[in-house]
Design goal:
With about 130 residues, the protein is α/β, with parallel strands linked by helices. It has one domain: Rossmann fold (3-Layer(aba) Sandwich), CATH 3.40.50.10600. The protein has four helices and seven strands; from the N terminus they run ββββαβαβαβα. A seven-stranded mixed β-sheet has the order 1-2-3-4-5-6-7, sandwiched between helices. It is globular, with a radius of gyration of 13 Å. The termini are far apart.
Length: about 130
């Protein structure tokens, strides 16, 4: 059985969950760097942190997701991430990553097809520009 994870607050706006880094860029954008395999435990802790941030931030929240160094996601993790993307407080989700595995994960994790609030990009600059539209 894997050890129990919990998110750690690094600074006022930075958190870690395992190797993942979550940063509050401003009052409307959460940046997540998904690093390594995404387990059930990672997803549960990320959800806990998102719920905390959603309750503290005003209005709708954007997510900027970097999958450049992400590994595979467990089925439960994919389900949790999809729920977060569909949360009533989520405005837009911009996913980027050039690694081939990241592209497959983005489509699988976010259910990108047919959703207007989720887009996939090859770089951070394009993803950020879309979030600001």
């Amino acid at each position: 059985m894997a050890p129990q994870l919990c998110y750690k607050q690094i600074s006022e706006k930075e958190f870690t969950i395992g190797e993942n880094r979550i940063t509050l860029l401003d009052n409307s954008t959460i940046y997540i760097e998904a690093i390594g395999e995404q387990t059930d435990e990672h997803a549960r802790e990320i959800l806990k942190l998102y719920q905390k941030l959603y309750s503290e931030l005003p209005g709708k929240i954007n997510q900027l997701v970097n999958l450049d160094r992400s590994g595979k996601s467990s089925p439960k993790a994919r389900q949790v991430y999809e729920e977060m993307n569909n949360h009533e407080s989520t405005h837009k989700v911009a996913v980027y990553g050039i690694h081939p595995v990241a592209r497959v994960l983005a489509a699988f994790v976010t259910g990108i097809k047919g959703k207007k609030n989720i887009e996939f990009f090859t770089n951070k600059e394009d993803a950020m520009a879309w979030l600001k539209k």
